[in-house]
Amino acid sequence: MLAFIPSPTNGTLNLGPIPLHVYGLLLAVGVVVAAIIAERRWVRWGQDKRVFQDALIWIVLGGVVGARLYHVITDYERFTGDWARVFQIWKGGLSIWGVVAGGLIAVLIVARVKHVNTFLLTDAIVPGLLVAQAIGRWGNYFNQELFGEPTALPWGLKIDPINRPLGFESYSQFHPTFLYESIYCLILVAIILWVERNWRLRTGQTSGLYLALYCFGRFGFENLRIDDARVVLGLRINAWVTLVVMIIGIVWFVGAGRRGKIDPGRYPESPDPLGSGATAANA
Q: Domain residue spans in the chain?
């Protein structure tokens, strides 16, 4: 090969005597960035900053717990005989579907307690969540995990022999699905912000759009991966989950468009509701 993407030989950074796991560090960075983006959107829409800050810890906790539980439940064989590994999240094993499910449950509870609109809160979170996903995917790079099929493309990811799946030991370079998904998430951020800027989305539509568009790309990435996974009717279980969530996202987007309301904080009544020169039209 004339070109390839090298993989790190070590997934830790040593700060003196303290080993710092890059996977965990990237997760933390992603959470902080997502929180900043979501809070700014929430406040810009005229909502109470303190309410969001009070809710944040529970939403993050719900997302992390949900992410780990989903992984442990769907891949429980990996933990049999060594259940202490359940808590070793820095070694990987956090599912985005667990994040969405756990975070959504936390949002539902927080919104009820704080008396705020549930879907307005999820709409505020969506772009930051995508940025966090884009950052977090690089943790897979440092752990040399969740890559795709062998490839001869010049951006193939070099994987050490010890991390190659059974049956692929003779191949050295694989599709960098972590990179594909990271880039895709950032593209979705741009698309969603563009849509919000040019159309008056009703409350909840941003969340439905996220689910539909993310799942569209994730289905392809999921079927490109070769890591060991449970297969049902010829598809990885996560691929089936992706299809189901994509349908939910489409129904969510359409339903919110028909029954939802335009939040005056997001779109003040003016010829230019976003204050940026964009022309808004009813969605």
A: 15-282
- What's the mean pLDDT when you consider all of the chain? 86
* Pair of tokens at residue 44: 């810009």
pLDDT value for 89: 63
State the Rg of the chain over Cα.
Answer: 20
Question: Residue 188, Cα to own-chain centre: how many angstroms?
Answer: 11
Tell me the pTM.
Answer: 0.85
The torsion defined by the Cα of 159, 162, 163 and 168, in degrees rounded to 10, comes to 80
Question: CB neighbours (10 Å) of residue 9?
Answer: 7
As a whole number of Å, the end-to-end CA separation of the chain is: 49
pLDDT digit string, tens, across residues 39-52: 999 999 999 999 99
* Cβ-proximal residues to 160 (8 Å cutoff; 6+ apart), any chain: 7, 9, 144
Token digits of residue 112: 């009820």
